[in-house]
Amino acid sequence: MKRVCIVRQKYWPNKNVVRNAEALVSQGYEVDVIALREKGEKRQETIRGVNVYRLPLAFHRGSLLRYIFQYCAFFFLFAWKLSRLSLKKRYDVVEIDNMPDFLVFSTIFPRLLGTKVILYLYENMPELFASTFKKGPNHIGTKLLRLMERLSAGYAHHVIVADGPLYKRVLESHGVPSEKITVVLNVPDDQIFDSKSPPTPKGDDGFRLITHSTILKRYGVQTLIRAMPLLLKDIPELKVDVLGDGDYRPELEKLARELGVAEHIHFTGWVSFKGVPSFIAQADIGVVSMIDDVGLPNKLFEYFALGKPCVASALPSLTYTFDDNYMLFYRPDDEKGLAAQITELYRSPEKRAYLGSNGQAFYRNCDWQITKHEYLNVYEELLT
Question: 255 with 181, same domain?
Answer without folding.
Answer: no
